[in-house]
């Protein structure tokens, strides 16, 4: 009827129907296909969560075995992908490389880019889930100037990622089971989160019929920003900047000052007006990992104190600003030995399954091209003025 609503930032607009993930932001609940994030993080593993997000049910033992072995069949990247890296500066941000290389995967799979063919969509999902850790680790190795490590299919998903990150061809990789478990849990906690900015970007790009690799590259770009996936990197940079417990009050005051652009990174969420349940699991995991590794990290102490002071401050209480998933993830990633610049890459790697599950859900059902409207606030119609008559 020509009437449309104005909703900048989509704070109250549902853009689609979905059966994948449920969030109740008021109580701080997150379910994937009906299973709570706490149970999935405590009892499942990342590839099982991937299967569940993609297919809607937990796999049987046989289905799980088949899924894991199929994903493992796709872990290598085409040898020519290696050449891409040489075009980048060694100090390129790894997210810049990810945007380019993942988008370029579409140039390698012309045979399976028919989005209306369910088998093509399925093999694309396998390829993306399998190759993201390989490409992510290649970004790190390239920055270091070390040789790329081929994936090892005898290892678990997280173990293999750590092998490609930290192994070298001169000796057998030694991967700590504690670190591999912590890494796997981080992957689970980031696997999906319904219609966030990057997932909505993937859906919007996909709604034009664009190929899935290009859509995921669009998702990676949207994730990069500090208000979204880039927050985990920003949290550690912020903790570095705060420096010591004595400076916390100054930074809390800055965060409350509307004339200061500073925000407490890792705090606040569009949907959660209570504790982000992922942050609760991440916080516990953080303590476990540091205790098991015997690491005494002053940044964790600083983070806990910052959390305590912020949560007791009326500003944060009134605005219902709680720590989100990114508040503690950086500290665990740092303990694992992951450099700060790789944090958002790890988010992208983990979220790939969510992106592809949403893309597939959209393409498998009737959908329309996404085409938001706008509220025009520019000039009314006016006559064109020839250049020699303009003032
Ligand atoms: N520090 C200080 N004030 C804040 C913060 C913060 N971290 N977050 C929100 N506020 C204030 C904001 O200034 C606003 O105040 P007012 O009502 O006076 O204008 C009010 O709280 C509501 O915030 P908003 O920015 O309108 O809320 P939003 O839903 O548009 O933004 C957010 C949500 C996550 C982008 C924002 O809270 C933020 O920038 N947080 C820091 C970045 C961060 O941690 N992002 C990771 C999100 S979780 C991981 C993911 O899903 O990507």
Automatic annotation (TrEMBL):
It comes from the Bacteria. Pathway: Carbohydrate metabolism; tricarboxylic acid cycle; isocitrate from oxaloacetate: step 1/2. The active site is at residues 269, 326. PROSITE patterns: CITRATE_SYNTHASE. One of its GO terms (molecular function) is citrate synthase activity. GO terms for biological process: tricarboxylic acid cycle. It catalyses: oxaloacetate + acetyl-CoA + H2O = citrate + CoA + H(+). It holds the Pfam family Citrate_synt. GO terms for cellular component: cytoplasm. Keywords: Acyltransferase, Membrane, Transferase, Transmembrane, Transmembrane helix, Tricarboxylic acid cycle. The chain crosses the membrane at residues 327-349. Coiled coil: none annotated. NCBIfam families: cit_synth_I, PRK05614.1. PANTHER family: CITRATE SYNTHASE. Belongs to the citrate synthase family. This is Citrate synthase.
């Amino acid at each position: 009827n020509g009437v449309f609503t104005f909703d900048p930032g989509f704070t109250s607009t549902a853009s689609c129907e979905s059966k994948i993930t449920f969030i109740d932001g008021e109580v701080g609940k997150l379910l994937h296909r009906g299973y709570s994030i706490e149970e999935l993080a405590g009892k499942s593993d990342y590839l099982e969560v991937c299967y569940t997000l993609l297919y809607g049910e937990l796999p049987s033992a046989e289905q799980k075995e088949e899924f894991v072995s199929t994903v493992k069949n796709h872990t290598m990247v085409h040898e020519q992908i290696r050449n891409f890296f040489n075009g980048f500066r060694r100090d390129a941000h790894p997210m810049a490389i990810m945007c380019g290389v993942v988008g370029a995967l579409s140039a390698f799979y012309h045979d399976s880019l028919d989005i209306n063919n369910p088998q093509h969509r399925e093999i694309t999902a396998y390829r993306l889930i399998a190759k993201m850790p390989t490409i992510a680790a290649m970004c790190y190795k390239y920055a270091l100037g070390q040789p790329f490590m081929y994936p090892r299919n005898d290892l678990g998903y997280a173990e293999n990622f750590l092998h490609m990150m930290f192994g070298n061809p001169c000796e057998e990789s030694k991967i700590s089971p504690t670190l591999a478990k912590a890494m796997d849990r981080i992957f689970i906690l980031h696997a999906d989160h319904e219609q966030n900015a990057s997932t909505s970007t993937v859906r919007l790009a996909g709604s034009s019929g664009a190929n899935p690799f290009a859509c995921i590259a669009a998702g990676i770009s949207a994730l990069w920003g500090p208000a979204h996936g880039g927050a985990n990197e920003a949290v550690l940079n912020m903790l570095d900047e705060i420096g010591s417990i004595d400076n916390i009050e100054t930074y809390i005051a800055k965060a409350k000052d509307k004339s200061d652009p500073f925000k407490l990174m890792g705090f606040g969420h569009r949907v959660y007006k209570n504790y982000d349940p992922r942050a609760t699991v991440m916080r516990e995991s953080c303590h476990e990992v540091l205790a098991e590794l015997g690491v005494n990290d002053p940044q964790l102490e600083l983070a806990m104190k910052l959390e305590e002071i912020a949560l007791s401050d009326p500003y944060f209480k009134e605005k219902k600003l709680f720590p989100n998933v990114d508040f503690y993830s950086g500290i665990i990633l740092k303990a694992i030995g992951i450099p700060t610049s790789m944090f958002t890459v790890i988010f992208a790697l983990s979220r790939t399954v969510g992106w592809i599950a949403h893309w597939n859900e959209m393409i498998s059902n009737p959908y329309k091209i996404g085409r938001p409207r706008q509220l025009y606030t520019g000039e009314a119609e006016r006559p064109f003025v020839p250049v020699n008559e303009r003032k």
